[in-house]
Design goal:
The complex is a heterodimer. By secondary structure, chain A is α/β, with parallel strands linked by helices. Helices cover 38% and strands 20% of the residues of chain A. In chain A, the strands form 2 sheets. Chain A has a 7-stranded mixed beta sheet, sandwiched between helices. Chain A has a 5-stranded mixed beta sheet with strand order 7-9-8-11-12, with helices on both faces. In chain A, α10 links the parallel β11 and β12. Chain A is globular and about 60 Å long. Classes of the chains: A alpha/beta, B alpha/beta.
C-alpha cells in the first residue's frame, strides 16, 4: 500500500479496478494524468468527460443504474456545490450508489480564493438521505475505507485531503462508520476530523505540561456518525473540543453536540471555519495559523474549557 | 380536426387526471403517441420482469408528462388498475412525477428538467462498457432544452459515439412562448447528432425513424425532432393556456370525449 496520501487515490483505484470490472471512473479534467495507470490497466472504464460536473454526476448515476460502480473525481466545490441537485435526485432520490472523491478539501487550494474553497461540503452531503461521508487523512484510511464502501449501493462522499495526520492506525481500527479512540485521558475530550488530528496530537505535550490528561478521538467517517464513542468519552470527561476544517453548521462539532444530548454539565467548544469567506491567499499553513488550527491554539482552547487560563 | 390516434389512451389520461384531481393533460397528449409506439413496436421489455437485463431502456426526461407513461405502462401490464385508481393518493405508487423506486417500468425519477438525458447518456455509456447491445430511448421537451445539462449531455453523447442512444425532442412550442430556440434541429445537428424530423403524432413516421435507429451503429447518437401539439386531439386543450395543469369538470370531460371520438 502506498505511503503517500497524494498517490493513495490513483493507487487505490488501480488496485480495486484490476479486481472489479464494474468499477468505472469519470473525471472532470482533474487527476487525468494521475489516473492513467488505471486507464491503461482497465481500458474502457476511464473517462475524462469534460468540464460539466452536473452532467457527469447524472451520467454516473445512469451507469450505477445498470450495475456499475462509478467513481467521480473533481474539485470539491464543483463536485458537491455545483452538482448538488444531481446528487440529491439522480443518486439519493433514485437510491443509486456511487463514490464522489474530491480534491481541494476546505482551503487546500490556498492561493485560488473562494471559487476553489469548500467549507460546507460535509454538511451538504450529510443532508442527503442515504448518503455517507468519509474524510480520510492517511493513505491507509483512504484505501481501506474506499474498499469498504465503493460497492455498498449508497452515495459515498470521500473528502480527500493532501494533508496526512501522520498517525498510523492498525487496519482493524479503520472501520467504516466507526470513530477511533486514539488516546485515553480523563480531563477533556479532543475530537478531530481529517488532518487536524495532527495539531491535536501536537497539543498533547503542551496540555500535559499544564497538567491536563486529554482523551483523543478521531472520526474518519462523519456519516454515519459513531455517536456512542463520543458519548462515552464526553460522559467521562464532561469537556469537549472539536477541531475541523469545515463550517460550524453540519460538521463534526454539530454531530458531537447532538451526540451529547442528555449528558449534564458538559462544556464544549468547536474550532472550525468561521462564518465568512476566507479571502487571504498564501499557503495552507498560513491559513491554518490565521484560523487557529495550531497546537498552541488548541491547547489554549482546551485549557479554557478546563477553566485554566494560559498566558501564552 | 384531423384524425387523432390513441383515443383510448388519451381518454385514460383524462380519466387518470380526473381521478387523482391533478396532472398535465396537454403535455401527456403531446407525447403519448411516441411513448405508445416505442413500447408497442420497438422496446425490448418484459412486464413480468421489469429489471430484465436484456431490456431496452425508455426514459421520460420531461417527467411532468408522466400520465402518458402511466397509461402506456398500464397497457403493457406493468401497472394494475388498482395502481391507476390510486394515482396521486397518499398510498399510491403513481405520483405527479415518476418515481423509479415505486413504479415498475419507470427507469428514472424525473420531474426536475434536465436530468433524464444525462442520466440516459450514463446508461448508454454503461451499456457500452458492459458490451451490451441494449438501446436507450429518452424523451425531452423543447422547453427542457433550455436547461444547460441538455447541451452538456448532447456534447458528451456525440463525443462518446453513443449510437445506442436516441433522443426524442417533443417540439410542441413550449419554449417558443418564453425563450425560443432559433432552430432546434440545427442546434442538435451542430452538437454532432444525427437529426431526423417527424410528425410526432404519426405512428408510421415514428416507426420509420425508430426502425432506422435500431439498425444504426455508426457512432452517432440519434435526435428525432418530433413536431407535436400540446393537447393534441382536443381543440380547447391545445397550446399553452390555463390547461397546462387543470382538471376538467364533468362538462369539459364530455366535451373532450366528444372531440376525441368525433
Amino acid at each position: 500500500m502506498t505511503q503517500d496520501l497524494r498517490s493513495a487515490f490513483p493507487d487505490t483505484i488501480l488496485e480495486v479496478g484490476k479486481e472489479d470490472s464494474n468499477l468505472v471512473v469519470l473525471v472532470g479534467d482533474i487527476g487525468h494524468f494521475a489516473l492513467q495507470p488505471f486507464a491503461e490497466a482497465c481500458p474502457g472504464r476511464y473517462y475524462n468527460v469534460g468540464i460539466l460536473e452536473p452532467t457527469i454526476i447524472s451520467m454516473a448515476a445512469g451507469m450505477a443504474s445498470v450495475g456499475l460502480y462509478p467513481v467521480v473525481h473533481t474539485i470539491a466545490p464543483f463536485l458537491i456545490e455545483r452538482s448538488f441537485e444531481q446528487l440529491k435526485l439522480d443518486f439519493c432520490y433514485q437510491e443509486l450508489g456511487g463514490t464522489l472523491m474530491s480534491v481541494g478539501s476546505a482551503f487546500e487550494y490556498s492561493t485560488l480564493g473562494g471559487t476553489h474553497h469548500t467549507y460546507d461540503d460535509i454538511a451538504l452531503v450529510r443532508s442527503l438521505p442515504g448518503s455517507e461521508v468519509i474524510y480520510p487523512a492517511s493513505p491507509k484510511e483512504l484505501n481501506l475505507l474506499f474498499k469498504q464502501t465503493y460497492a455498498n449501493g449508497n452515495l459515498t462522499y470521500i473528502r480527500m485531503t493532501r494533508q496526512d495526520h501522520g498517525v498510523d492506525f492498525s487496519d482493524d481500527k479503520i472501520q467504516f462508520g466507526k470513530g477511533i479512540l486514539v488516546k485515553e485521558g480523563c480531563d477533556i475530550t479532543l475530537i478531530a476530523a481529517g488532518p487536524q488530528l495532527k495539531n491535536i496530537m501536537g497539543s498533547l505535550e503542551l496540555l500535559s505540561n499544564a497538567g491536563i490528561d486529554a482523551e483523543i478521538l478521531y472520526y474518519p467517517t462523519l456519516k454515519p456518525f459513531d455517536a456512542e464513542l463520543a458519548r462515552q468519552s464526553i460522559n467521562k470527561t464532561k469537556r469537549v473540543l472539536t477541531v475541523e476544517e469545515h463550517i460550524e453548521l453540519g460538521g463534526l462539532g454539530d454531530q458531537v453536540l447532538r451526540a451529547i444530548q442528555g449528558i449534564d454539565g458538559v462544556s464544549m467548544d468547536n474550532l472550525c471555519i468561521p462564518d465568512h469567506f476566507l479571502r487571504n491567499y498564501g499557503t495552507y499553513q498560513e491559513h491554518c495559523e490565521k484560523l487557529g488550527f495550531t497546537p498552541q491554539n488548541i491547547t489554549n482552547m482546551a485549557l479554557k474549557l478546563c477553566n485554566m487560563n494560559n498566558s501564552d | 380536426m384531423a384524425k387523432v390516434e390513441n383515443i383510448d389512451l388519451r381518454m385514460n389520461i383524462v380519466d387518470l387526471v380526473r381521478r387523482g384531481n391533478g396532472g398535465h393533460i396537454p403535455s401527456a397528449f403531446s407525447i403519448v403517441d411516441i411513448i405508445d409506439t416505442v413500447y408497442s413496436d420497438f422496446l425490448k421489455h418484459d412486464s413480468e420482469n421489469p429489471d430484465w437485463e436484456g431490456r431496452d431502456i425508455f426514459i421520460l426526461s420531461k417527467g411532468h408528462g408522466c400520465a402518458a407513461l402511466y397509461v402506456v405502462l398500464h397497457k403493457n401490464g406493468y401497472l394494475q388498475q388498482k395502481d391507476m385508481d390510486e394515482y396521486l393518493s397518499f398510498q399510491g405508487i403513481l405520483g405527479g412525477h415518476p418515481d423509479r423506486t415505486k413504479v415498475p417500468g419507470a427507469e428514472a425519477s424525473t420531474g426536475s428538467l434536465g436530468h433524464g438525458l444525462p442520466f440516459a447518456v450514463g446508461i448508454a455509456l454503461g451499456l457500452k462498457v458492459q458490451k451490451k447491445s441494449n438501446r436507450v430511448i429518452v424523451l425531452v421537451g423543447d422547453g427542457e432544452c433550455h436547461e444547460g445539462t441538455i447541451w452538456e449531455s448532447a456534447l458528451v453523447a456525440q463525443s462518446l459515439g453513443l449510437d445506442n442512444l436516441c433522443c426524442f425532442i417533443d417540439y410542441n412550442g413550449s419554449a417558443d412562448q418564453i425563450l425560443p430556440h432559433p432552430n432546434i434541429a440545427k442546434q442538435w445537428e451542430a452538437f454532432g447528432w444525427g437529426i431526423h424530423e417527424i410528425d410526432g403524432h404519426n405512428p408510421d413516421e415514428i416507426r420509420n425513424e425508430l426502425g432506422d435507429f435500431y439498425k444504426r451503429s455508426e457512432g452517432v447518437p440519434t435526435a428525432i425532432i418530433a413536431n407535436t401539439v400540446k393537447g393534441k386531439g382536443v381543440s380547447f386543450l391545445q397550446k399553452h393556456g390555463p390547461w397546462h395543469y387543470k382538471v376538467p369538470d364533468d362538462k369539459e370531460y364530455e366535451a373532450i370525449k366528444e372531440e376525441l371520438q368525433s
